[in-house]
Amino acid sequence: MKLSKMYMPTLREVSSDAEVASHKLLLRGAFIRKSASGIYTYLPLGYRVVKKVEKIVREEMDRAGSQEILMSAIQPKEIWEASGRWDRFGPEMFKLKDRNDREFCLGPTAEEYFTTLIKDEVRSYKQLPLNLYQIQTKYRDEKRPRFGINRAREFSMKDAYSFDTSPSTLEESYMEMYRAYEKIFDRLNLDYKIVEGDNGAMGGSKSHEFIALSETGEGEIAYSPSGKYAATSEKAKVVYEIPESESPRELEEVSTPNLKTIEEVAEFLGVEKNRCLKAIDLMVREEPVVVFIPGDRELNMSKLESYLQTPDHEIELMTDEEINSINSAVGFTGPIGLDKNVKLIFDESVTKIDNMSIGANREGYHIKNGNYGRDFSGEVCEDLLEVKQGDIIEETGEEYMFARGIEVGNIFQLGTKYSEALDATYLDENGKEKLIWMGSYGVGVTRSVSAIVEQNYDEDGIIWPMSVAPYQVIITVINSKDEEQMDLGEKIYSEFLDSGVEVLLDDRNERAGVKFKDRDLIGIPLRITVGKRAVEEVIEYSNRRDKEKEEITVKEAFERVY
Ligand code: ATP
Ligand code: MG
Ligand code: MG
Ligand code: MG
Questions:
Q1: 49 lines ligand 1 (CB under 6 A)
Q2: What positions does the domain Aminoacyl-transfer RNA synthetases class-II family profile occupy (predicted)?
């Protein structure tokens, strides 16, 4: 592309609401323009970067076996009502009505939509696992849109959804996505940490966030220097370490007792019989075993399964009504939870069941890939432990490290939350109807662009990593009125074009200073300057990051670029 023809209205100054470097530089470098609060246009340069990010995301998703589709950005209200999220999403959801008063939303995410898509056509275990993704514009009426495209109200997200027959195959699908995300963010050249996440509005049992480190990030994370542990600070509170050899797969194979009688169950659970007899009775006698847990049921279901699954018993989820009727029948007033020894306890004081398989099971304490009692032990503590600067991780003697960062990706094990709400089932090998186990996986495509800039700029502008640079090379002709300089510039330009190099030619009739400023600002990685020595076919070669200049021949320049 020739800059004389390009729509690249760079700016020397931007309005004061651009607080952070990425916002300022993307505006100044003519990558984006604001059209309303949190709503942006991508100009030619910016859109090229977005497409580069999309390409990397697509390649890694495809390689991981996910298949790309495209669903509408408009989603019907009914499916969101079925999951209970029409109301729960709150004011962040953009809602709209058609001419017949039918209600829709502009999709902020698409768990319900994808589940609805596959549920009638995926009938058999033979069609699973399945993983579908899209790169689609998402809409969230953020309370505080800020930092340009970092927290926008309209943004591009890659969202993927996996459908599995069991928690263990879900774990495999999840880990496949985990590894694909590592590749994506490596290729985006981001310096990031993977942290245990908060499940927030998604529900489910396990999640990780991919956090691009940046002082301007809105998220805070705590981690151990040895790299064994990281979590968002509201969740983070590592205390224990587990043997490195223990992979999640091995941990899942932990044998669980085969409980046949009420007595065995009671003993195993260590609960007072008179308090829980009826519940246990239900558990052992019903076929399949019934476990009822109020609150975040998916979270507990997947964790319970790994403990209580026996050859003779299966666990099934119950509806709220069923739980309520059993509760009132057996006279329980409080919620039922699990404590650290895998007891079923019926205790009014237990309000949250947390971290059975990943944590030390005291509020705020988490262990990655460990099982309580087998991999670690510890005291139960009711209080939330706050981690402060200077605190020591008792077991390892390490001091907590803290960092700020930008959430660029988030993966979740959803369990059966959405398949239950939307009735997405499959028939297993025995022709038995079962709920599909789901995961969801998001990458902030446009947010990644701003995160990359936050990590790659200097006082003169952006320094794009090659993998996402809008163009790889920029040729600056110092004096475009000089025929020899222009001829050489054009010659190099067309040779690069012929060999597929993405190249810009600054042929504008501007002062050299203006051209240099712009090329620094827009951050093209490799630069060729055609000046006085054009006759000898000697050019000045430099790269954006260190700006070291070298005079080399055109021939050498080609060799460097290829
Ligand atoms: P945040 O905590 O920043 O509000 P989130 O946890 O609500 O993000 P998810 O629902 O996990 O976001 O969505 C998946 C990904 O979409 C996020 O990891 C992020 O990269 C991106 N994303 C979410 N909200 C926005 C937004 N307002 N603008 C740009 N990207 C966003
Ligand atoms: Mg959010
Ligand atoms: Mg978040
Ligand atoms: Mg998130």
A1: no
A2: 38-465
- Please give the Cα distance from 442 to 490 (Å, whole number): 43
3-state helix, strand, coil in the chain (%, to 5): 35, 25, 40
Give the number of other Cβ atoms within 10 Å of residue 283's Cβ: 22
What pTM did the predictor assign? Answer: 0.75
Q: How many CB atoms lie within 10 A of CB 426?
A: 23
Q: Helix 483-498 vs helix 554-561: angle between axes, to the nearest 10 degrees?
A: 30
**Euclidean distance between the first and final Cα of the chain, in Å?**
19
Probe target for ligand 1 pocket from 410, 411, 453, with the most ligand atoms within 8 Å of CB: 410
How many degrees, rounded to 5, is the angle at CA 208 between CA 203 and CA 211?
125
pLDDT digits (tens, 9 = 90+) for 81-136: 999 999 988 899 999 999 999 999 999 999 999 999 999 999 999 999 999 999 99
Does the structure show a pLDDT above 90 at 557? yes
Q: Does residue 110 have its Cβ closer than 6 Å to ligand 1?
A: no
Q: What is the pLDDT of residue 227?
A: 62
**Phi-psi region for residue 150, left (φ > 0), alpha (ψ -120 to 50) or beta?**
alpha
Q: Which two tokens stand for residue 508?
A: 């504008």
Tokens coding 554: 């055109």
Task: Read off the tokens for 333.
Answer: 């007033």
Q: Which of 116, 114, 153 is nearest to 131 (CA)?
A: 114
Distance between CA atoms of residues 561 and 555, nearest Å: 10
Query: Is ipTM strictly over 0.95?
Result: yes
Q: Confirm if 209 and 412 have CB atoms less than 8 A apart.
A: no
Strands 457-458 and 39-42: unpaired
What is the residue-wise DSSP string for 75-131? EEHHHHHHHTHHHHTGGGSEEEE-TT--EEEE-S--HHHHHHHHHTT--BGGG-SEE
Distinct helix (H) and strand (E) counts, the chain: 16, 29
C-alpha distances in Å from residue 156, one per residue of 77, 338, 465: 21, 40, 20
534 DSSP assignment: G
How far apart are the CA of 362 and the centre of ligand 2, in A?
26
**Which residue has a Cα nearest atom 4 of ligand 1?**
151
Q: How far is CA 204 from CA 66, 132, 199, 531, in A?
A: 21, 19, 7, 61
Separation between Cα atoms, residue 233 and residue 405, nearest integer Å: 11
